[in-house]
User: Fold these one by one.
Assistant:
Number 1:
Amino acid sequence: MSWFEKVETISRGEMLELVHKAAEEARRRICANPKKVLLLPPDITRAHSGSGWIVEEFYKIFSKEAEVYVIPTLGQHLPHTPEQNRWMFGSIPEERILKHDWRNGVKTIGEVPADFVKEVSHGKADWAIPVCVNRTLLEGGWDLIINVGHVVPHEVLGFANHNKNYFIGLGGKPMICASHMMAACCGIENNLGRLITPLRACYNRAQEQYLSHLPDFFFEVVMAYDDQGELQHIGAFVGDDLDTYLNAAKLSRERNITIVPPLKKVVAVMQGNEFYSTWVANKAIYRTRMAMADGGELLIIAPGLKRFGEQEEVDKLIRAYGYSGTENVMKLWRTEPVLQDLTHGTAHLIHGSSEGRFKITYAPGHLSKEEVESVCFGYADLAETLKRYDPAKMKTGFNTMPDGEEVYYISTPSAGLWSTKEKIEDRQ
């Protein structure tokens, strides 16, 4: 059982009270007087969840008596700049915020066997997944480790957070690559909104076998839109077991999956201070693809967009091969060494394609028309798009434009999942 839960609308002040309650429980259950504390929040692409100021409060509590460090669980995303850290984590000193290095800062401690991977994926993947995670996590001599995050539908794991912080957020290249390719083979639309996906089953096994000794717990939040279309915290789940995740995911499944009729036109906004690459901005595709009508259009307003991949090598890969559909990417994967080496990037190309079923159009802040079209997306001018679809005037859900065009507007697609009833029910 989780340590405690709160399922109702939670104000910022109430959430901070829960942070203090969690700290007290951690002292009672894990370590009464911790001298070294590690805080593991998500990265800046989930800043809207409040995880930054939640972590800042944990830092204030424990830094009075302990050395406290923060490692944003970046995975292979670019490290935060000092300015981004200040924006997300407030008063936490920059020297206390460490950078995860997914290539050189990790250690392999085991593997999820190939026969287990094959079993849980029903034969769609048949390779071992190396358990390869951050050295500082393993060797830091921590008295207390606190995972903070937002449980929300996710394209790889069904729902984000929990041990995703360890195995993707603090994962090494071998683990991230093997994991993403497995999830892609299982099918993105089969993963989204499932409590236990094949990859989650692998991570649960890896956590139990290799990380059960860690002095850790999870502080997980769930959010939903209120009647005014604003995101609010609606749940907090605190504990050190799988039920903590499952209970949060069940609430997210109930409140974060919106059933809609097939949508001909969707306008989605990826915030300019959080989303700088299609690697993360493509969440707009993942979370709406099950709602899109055949022949429809997804228009993504992305004022911060300035690159495709988070890492230079992945950016080059995306520019070279584009989001050209599963059949083409898998054919190339069998012969192209770079796609075989960077399989997390290969999986990303699969996830980001509509498979020709609907049109994907980007209105980017910093990429040219030629660049966007070269990776198989459509292009729209940002200024013209913002003039027509002004986020300040649009409301979440259906909007009728002055010329009669009907569009479905989503202000923060990364906070939910949209699907037709048939798509969510008729899955493998």
Number 2:
Amino acid sequence: MTQDASNWPDAPFTRADLPGLGLTENDLRRALRCRTIRPLVRGVFVAAHLEETLELRARAVAKVVRADQVVTDRTAAWLHGVDTHVYAEHDSMPRVETCALRWHAPTKLTGVDGRTRDLTPQDVMVIDGVRVTTPLRTALDLGCCLRRREAFAAMVLLAALHGLTESDLERSLGRYRRRRGVIQLRSLVGLVDPRIESAREAWVFLAIADAGLPLPEPQVWIEIDGVPTYRLDFAYRRARVVVEYDGEEAHEGREAEDEERRAWLRRHGWTVIVVRIGDFTGEALDRWLDELRSALATAYSNRRW
């Protein structure tokens, strides 16, 4: 049999799968020599034309690790539709993050970050043959193990994609007693609002909360003549203050539209505060938070002194 790319499945496979594919060990060796297939992780092969993705690598790992190994943390978030890897990690394939159930040894497979963790059957689900922590468990784990801003963003985006509520998160907090990172997790759970639509918007919301300012309402529609016309990232309706994150990834090609919206808001008595990509640390952070603090301060109070 001549082995070309069309003879091999569009999924990871092992030598044990060959009979079911109607193939032999000789076919495998020949295809490896011809480079129509390639090894992905030890003992697992894929067709050469398949793009290497984290999903594909996780499926490959699942083929050869024991049933007590579960994909967790950032890899789990990726499989659930949320990318929590930093920008530089996209230049090379991140390691698949897994954990072994308690009393089992973590895997030492190359390309895998194996650890140990207590999980219950309710914490685990299967996606395309991969045992992975559920969106709820993944959100809580990331709330402990990522840095604060990234942790909050991951929790918010998982909540939005998978219908998690603050109550869902709070009910599970008791299981995290004494876990490293639980203090951070507890401080974040009560802030999670699934209406927040992006990681950087989550950073804006968290910065406002950490500054001790009133929390804004996410995704507010402004109506003109009864028609919803402008949607704002964050707004304080009564104070007529809007806070928007102006990220290149979200606003590219929309500069004119953004300026039109902000000009209309200013003409109609709104204070518009724009946060940009470099405004999350140091003086830049203090600048827009001070601007927001001043905008929210009222000129009139009914107190006598």
Number 3:
Amino acid sequence: MNTTPNSGIDEIIANNYAKIKTIREQGIDPFPHRFSLTHKIDKACQTPAGESVIIAGRIVLMRVMGKATFAHLKDGTGKMQIYVKKDAVGEAAYELFKKQMHVGDFLGVEGKLFLTHTGELTVNAEKLTVLSKSVRPLPEKFHGLTDPEARYRERYLDLISNEEARTIFVRRSQVVAAIRGVLDADGYLEVETPVLCAQAGGASARPFITFHNAYKYELYMRIATELPLKKLIIGGFDGAYEIGRVFRNEGVDTRHNPEFTTLEAYKAYSDYNGMAALMERIFEKCSAIIGADTVEYNGMKVNLKPPFRRLSLPDEWLKKTGYDLHEILKGKSFNKENLKKLAAELHIEFGADTPPAKIFERIMDEKILSELEQPTFVMDYPTAITPLAKCKTGDESIVERFEFFAGKEEIANAYSELNDPEDQKSRLEEQLRQREEENNGEADILDKGFIEAMEYGMPPMGGIGVGIDRLTMLLAGKPSIREVILFPLLKPPTAG
């Protein structure tokens, strides 16, 4: 007899469709519109024995014992045992339950709670309601869901069969709620800004490009929410923030997904020190969520309890490279020859067309950032790679910017925001030059509308961007971004 690899699944599917037909022939709808329940399972588990409850959930275990069956129901809050006896629910209902229902189906149960001889709180079923018949077998029953790509592509199955995955996404939601709580308490206003933009500014990244048919022109998916949020501070809000998706047309690896979630927040009359204090308050809340001051991440034990170390980049650069940071800088741009000389001495790879900003980044990654296991604010960056931040007083080569690292991962980026329109225009013109002359496709753009808005007056302010996915990775102890995004972007499945 010839069989195909899917013949087993095909047989199960055909058998379950036959069961659906049988249920309908008995005058029962296997997919009813609604069901009224009295308790979610977690609350039912806290209800005294002897009380009546109506619960619902997916059948995850069935043990048939002739005229009685034990089963486990699971909903979004927990799992509970039910006891279904022929004498209690009636012969017809029991036979339907025993023969036509199986693991994976959704069931409603009404009955009184009792304690089994092992002390397990159980619903003694008096009435059963079919809520949904599953057709395909759950992963554990047929072949398991162990392949990582299958887990990401079929996340709904991962959530059914993998309790750890479900816990991660519950924690992610709690983290976002906690961040909102901190910002709302500090007087920030949550807002929404456009995803489709005439220009993609506010960060150094390649955008996705789309086309608007009605207006007949190209639009860009936003790469950051920075510029519209700053316009709101110009407009009179003292603080504004947005938690939302941004899109960058870049490579995909364990740390990058083309669409990801950021928090960006801006506060009038603050600076990058104020943003560092905000980051520490966020971490205090996150530590409370996971109920621990430390977390295991990628083989490192990371301490989440503030205050966190502040590391001067100019001081650390001198210590790790032997060069004064100013030796590779020339005012608000790079001294390209000195930068390349240093990279060669340090055995950092680069090509003839590698933009100076990329060479600088590679030196940073190799010599400084690779050691930042514990939470650290790396303070004061080159103006040449930070066109939107204020310069340090008396030093046009360095700006008031920090990047926040934990577990050797960048979690956040913050500035004392530049509010001088003339300086801002010249900085963005330098970015335009880098884009055109140095083959730096990730250089920032010159947004004339933003400059015009600044000319109406922008108060001094601090601003911060936090990678929600990176933060969740750290708190969940998962070094892959795909573990903390419900539906990461994947290659199309191969045909055949």
